[in-house]
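Batch manifest, entry 17 of 40.
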Amino acid sequence: MAADRDRVDAALLNAVRTSDPYLTEVASHLIVAGGKRLRPVMTIAAAQVGSADAVANDVILGGIACELVHLGSLYHDDVMDESTTRRGVETVNAKWGNLQAIVAGDFLLSRASEIAASLGNEVAGLLARTIGRLCEGQIEELKTTYDMKRSIPTYLSSIDGKTASLFSTSARIGALVAGHERQVVDALTNYGTSFGMVFQIVDDVLDILSTEEELGKPAGHDMEEGVYTLPVLLTLAEGGVAADELRELLGKPLSAVERDKALSIVRSNNGVQAAIDTARNYVQLAEAECNRMRQGAATDALRAAPMALLSSVIR
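Output type: structure tokens
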């Protein structure tokens, strides 16, 4: 996999290289900063189900198409959130400005679409639909900002769109390009969705539990911004004194003192554990999909990955 990651990094840099050095620098900013490349890794692992062979170059291209969509969405997210750092470096908007970040994000999405088109109509259509799902999930979240009545189904629908859909597509593209039979393609697609749901719920739990040093930003940032995630929603749904105290704080921007008090309430009650239990259900769904695939090293790695994610919040 290390060799494949090198192939991914080289292909990513090549994909954003243009005749304009300025655009190349802006578009490659977060690529150079590093990253786990989870979506290309998902594509590669999906392609390798039932095989020990190195993946074809088209699989790498499918993976970087998904990664470029992810990177483009990060450029746009950082503008919306007014973020100043990501991956240990200045964000594009902080370094070059919002206009450059928006245009560069659009450029990354266009490159992703161009690469997907080179892999055939099914992959191109799939990636286009996924970009739409990302937008739908993000809009669903924006509609409920500072809304303490945000429902758990609405939260799950939002993260399915803004996070899980791209993991699902990453796995499906790997399966399609590798030529897997349709049953395996569908199993990998479902697996990617469940993995993505675990990924986002764990991320939201970490925003509650982690320290500022671990996160690189203050804990409770989502609450501060009016984004009420699963641990918060489950704390509110539980009712009682804790829920009442939390409601008195939420529904508006929080001061640092209010944020810390809200964090203390959520950490001290059952919302975090209930969120972890919800994530565990998705872990089990992902593991069940692995039973529908040909067995081998890649399937074993896929089976282990969701629980490895969840273990980071089991304390």
